[in-house]
Amino acid sequence: MDISEQYKDLTIKITENLPLKAFPTRELVQIFRINGHPITLKTELTITSVHNSGDISGIMCVVEIVDGYRMACALTHLIFSKAVKLYSEISDYQKKRKKRI
Residue 50 and residue 11: Cα distance in Å, rounded? Predict the structure, then answer.
């Protein structure tokens, strides 16, 4: 299975399981803060939608915080609990994606 097919399959699976909860990476925390939303590494984000943007940007997510602020970010900028149903598939994607960047 080629990369684009893998991205498509995972995007579909995530979409079917929305909303999903995740936590931000350090880089994402900084972006939220720059935009006036002082979150921490322990701030729970809700993924409300996903989009497969292909090999250029990978799988993109729209995340929302408690105050309703939404922002798009890469799936690689999110940290998932091992309790999340798709944890192993998302984790595999993140590892492979980081090697490709």
Answer: 6
Spatial CA neighbour of 22 closest among 39, 36, 4: 39
Paired tokens of 37: 């939303």
pLDDT in tens, the chain (101 residues): 677 788 999 999 999 999 999 999 999 999 999 999 999 999 999 999 999 998 888 999 999 998 999 999 999 999 999 999 999 999 999 999 988 76
Predicted TM-score (pTM) of the model is 0.92
- Residue 30's contacts (CB-CB under 8 Å, 6 or more residues apart) are none
Give the 3-state secondary structure of residue 76: helix
